[in-house]
Design a protein that fits this description.
heterodimer; A: Rossmann fold; Rossmann fold; 4-stranded parallel β-sheet; B: 5-stranded mixed β-sheet; about 20% strand; binds iron/sulfur cluster
């Protein structure tokens, strides 16, 4: 492959490796240091857990690693054989497969295996699978599994809903104090929320740099760069990281440096990444001079409603406002706004077989948005982690045909 | 005089056409794609040249399409089969249409506006249901040559209904029909109907219904069943199996002509 179709790296990425390395080191050493480990869903109450002194571990991040390293496809069948259907979340099945086999990319990060939880804390704002997933480990290790039941298909994130969710977050304090053996300190929580909010606003700036034409950032870069926004939010190192990255991106934008040389078209990616094919897809889009500039996925970790002066309600509002738990009307409005903001020529929907929760092509949304925006769309069938559900040739041809179509418009 | 060549390397068959500057097909070749696509394409080209009495040098430009499109060294470029089926069908009809291509291993549905622009398209999912591969599997189960299916289905008097999505499940359903003594003609017609049902699920028909691909070319009953289901005439363009290759040749011609314009 010519160097012309390689992704351009960012200088800041080196720093990411360091801070992520430190984070995994903390997880590895937690038990010796007497620190407890809490598992948390990616849009769960991470700030609360940090404020109580927990090391916070995000199994979805592990799921994505299993996908990106393509270990998932061999591990999923182990979970299938154990009783988890091949039709359910392939983060769950790859993660449980990984546990059953005792094989994980975390071993390269200095951990013996996945870090054992002292408590597992879910939020069903994204799906039910996370709760089922966490409960399985809770039974394995005989530890508590607690969480927040956020309604789905939310229209307005109104006061009664926020109160309902905020109360559930507050109710976690007692059981979490009991496991941690520490006392809840609201000022500490406020500090962490302030830091998390700073991280979120920087992450938003990272993503917004892609509104420049040409865009200095692709969705594929975003899926890598988002790591700290997911797992290190609430920590100063994440803030420092995104400050450096924002500076780099804004400089590239000012110099007119595009991530895709000769950018002809700008595409929106709806749905989950195909983790095991990120590199191939990134290369194909570079060859087609088409930049995937924005996505629902990377934008799902922008939590502007976090509010240190109203910690519980702010968290409740932030975590109930994410795309995945909203009504289709809200989703349609959101994508239309993104298409406008990022000067989008077309939308690609990834219909991810094992994640109906984050596949939005199944209720006629693409057709409605085509009418509304007058831009074409493409649906590709695949999966986040299970490459048995992905057809390389068909996907390549579909994407190539879509780029041809954009030329005709 | 400038001639153009299009080669469509599909999952099972390779189709090649040569067109003249008036966009008329002057030669065609059909063979199995085989395992060496470049070699098969070479042989097909020689065959078409032989048929037309043309020399290689008289071909101004060639384009490749289909699964094997990246494996032909002598083409000017590649284009997807989705673009080619749309372009080829539009050449003959020049109106808003829906092209349904039933291939050996995948189906496509392509919406084209009255200017020949693609509005949207869809390929079937990873499953073989509703494709040529499905009919091959059914022929195998019934121990019949594939070529006999259309004739048999034409003789059906009481079509059998097959309901599954999946090729393997349908094969099991067929075993059940055999056991209960259904006539083979009626079973085959049921299988044909299943192909059309799977196609129908892929999208609605807008404008004229045009069907392309080798499966319809060899099994014209499928077009009549499609008319039944979609309540609109099914139009088969000339040489339906060669529409992809024809679209590729048209693309080669357009590209050459527009680059000449740009030069002059
Ligand atoms: S949202 Fe989808 S991918 Fe994420 S945990 Fe739930 S089912 Fe799995």
């Amino acid at each position: 492959m010519s160097s012309g179709s390689e992704r351009k790296d960012f200088a800041a990425t080196k720093m990411m490796k360091t801070i992520m390395g430190n984070y995994f080191g903390e997880l590895a050493n937690g038990p010796q240091q007497g620190r407890k480990t809490a598992w948390c869903t990616s849009v769960g109450p991470a700030e609360l857990l940090q404020s109580l002194g927990y090391n916070v571990y995000f199994p979805e991040n592990h799921g994505a690693m299993l996908g990106a390293t393509r270990m998932a496809t061999d591990l999923i069948p182990l979970a299938n054989a154990h009783g988890f259907s091949p039709d359910i979340c392939s983060y769950l099945t790859s993660d449980i497969g990984s546990y059953l086999k005792g094989a994980t990319p975390l071993q390269k990060m200095g951990l013996a295996g996945i870090p054992k939880a002292d408590v597992l804390v879910f939020n069903t704002n994204q799906c039910r699978d996370v709760k089922d997933w966490f409960q399985w480990y809770a039974r394995q290790w005989n530890v508590p599994c607690i969480g927040i039941h956020t309604p789905r298909a939310i229209g307005d994130v109104d006061a009664p809903l926020v109160d309902y969710v905020a109360k559930q977050i507050e109710d976690l304090i007692g059981p979490l104090e009991a496991v941690a053996g520490t006392k809840f300190d609201i000022d500490r929580l406020r500090e962490i929320i302030a830091c998390s909010r700073e991280c979120t606003l920087l992450w938003k700036r990272v993503l917004q740099s892609a509104a420049n034409v040409p865009s200095p950032l692709t969705f594929f870069d975003g899926t890598i760069q988002m790591g700290p926004a997911v797992v290190l939010r609430g920590r100063p190192d994440a803030v420092q990281y995104y400050q450096a990255l924002v500076a780099e991106l804004e400089q590239r934008a000012a110099e007119g440096q595009g991530a895709v040389p000769g950018e002809r078209f700008r595409v929106y990616w709806e749905g989950m990444p195909v983790w095991g094919k990120l590199r191939d897809l990134a290369t194909q889009f570079i060859e087609l001079k088409t930049c995937v500039v924005a996505s629902t996925y990377c934008n799902s970790w922008i939590f502007e409603a976090l509010d240190p002066s109203d910690p519980f309600r702010g968290m409740a509002r932030a975590y109930s406002s994410i795309f995945i738990c909203r009504s289709d009307d809200e989703k349609e409005r959101y994508i239309a706004e993104m298409a406008d903001k990022f000067h989008i020529n077309g939308i690609i929907y990834h219909d991810s077989k094992t994640c109906p929760n984050n596949s939005n092509s199944r209720y006629e949304l693409p057709q409605r948005l085509r009418e509304r925006l007058g831009i074409p769309y493409l649906v590709i069938n695949g999966d986040l982690n299970d490459l048995r559900l992905f057809s390389e040739e068909q996907t390549r041809t579909n994407i190539e045909a879509f780029a041809e179509q954009l030329t005709e418009v | 005089m400038s001639y153009y060549c299009g080669v469509d390397i599909g999952a099972s068959a390779l189709k090649l056409v040569i067109i003249d500057p008036e966009r008329r097909i002057v030669a065609r070749a059909l063979r199995r794609s085989g395992i060496d696509y470049a070699l098969s394409a070479d042989r097909a080209l020689d065959e078409a040249l032989g048929e037309s009495g043309l020399q290689r040098e008289q071909i101004s430009a060639s384009m490749a399409t289909g699964y094997g499109r990246n494996n032909v060294p002598w083409v000017r470029g590649t284009v997807t089969e989705i673009a080619c089926h749309g372009k080829g069908a539009f050449h003959y009809l020049r109106r808003e249409m829906t092209v349904i291509d039933i291939g050996a291993q995948d189906n496509k549905i392509i919406h084209i506006d009255d200017q020949g622009r693609r509005l949207d398209f869809r390929m079937n999912r990873k499953c073989a249901a509703g494709t040529g591969a499905f009919l091959e599997e059914i022929a195998l189960r019934l121990d019949l040559p594939v070529a006999s299916l259309n004739g048999l289905a034409e003789q059906s008097t009481a079509e059998v209904s097959l309901g599954s999505f999946c090729t393997v499940f349908t094969a099991t359903e067929i075993l059940e029909k055999i056991r209960t003594g259904q006539r083979v003609e009626d079973i085959v017609k049921g299988a044909f109907r299943a192909v059309i049902k799977r196609t129908m699920e892929m999208g609605a028909i807008r404008g004229a219904l045009v069907m392309t691909g080798g499966v319809v070319a060899h099994n014209p009953l499928l077009a009549r069943l499609a008319e039944d289901v979609f309540h609109t005439p099914a139009i088969l363009p000339p040489d339906p199996q060669f529409i992809g290759a024809f679209g590729a040749a048209l693309t080669a011609a357009e590209q050459m002509e527009s680059s000449k314009h740009a030069d002059s």
